[in-house]
Amino acid sequence: MSQNIEKEFKNLLNKEEYEALLTAFNLEATEPIKQTNVYFDTPDFKLKGLNSGLRIRMYEDKGEITLKTPIQENEKLETNDDLTLDEAKALVDSHRIKASGNVADKLKELGIATEDLRIIGQLSTIRYDFPGDKGTYFLDKSSYQDQMDYELEFESESLEEGALAFQIFLKLHDIKVRKAKQKIERMLAYPNSTTHQYSVTDNGSYR
What we know:
By secondary structure, this protein is α+β, with helices and mostly antiparallel strands. 25% of the residues lie in helices and 39% in strands. The chain contains 6 helices and 8 strands, in the order E-H-E-H-E-E-E-H-H-E-E-E-H-H. It has helices at residues 15-24, 46-49, 85-93, 102-109, 159-172, 183-188, and strands at 3-13, 33-41, 53-58, 63-72, 75-83, 118-132, 135-144, 147-156. It has an 8-stranded antiparallel beta barrel, surrounded by 4 helices. The longest helix is centred in the last third of the chain and has 14 residues, at 159-172.
């Protein structure tokens, strides 16, 4: 099965901090990755109840399905299926997830049928990446509905070393510590969401 363990740290940025990092690492001289996430869950948000998330991600030349399930804080198991861009678009257009493959098998383990899933929203990101001590940084500008936000993500092979390296990086670049909810939670927090009948409570849980 195509799986990997993601060890990730996140921090929201304001526009000034985002632009300062673009300049500091000369990122605008590089080609960003453009991606669109289309998120799925059941009408009663069974995946959210399991602290899990499911998306189809479309790049400019390919797609993928990813199911994230929790291991511990800042650590998730990712289960993936690669798609062609046409396959990804066809699934999104039909509002469905593949009924077979690695992700479908994992969903079955969780007691969730693919036919019960529906699109709950969409978010597009322009992403830059650059290497750092103990891992890789990802600088994101995301748009959803009429909102835009900025975020710094850091992936490391070690939770302990990664946490320390991330804290040092934030201090070095004078970035205020701001806890970042998952992108799906931020997207659904606004009433103009394509799924405006659902919302997110202050503590991050769906209602």
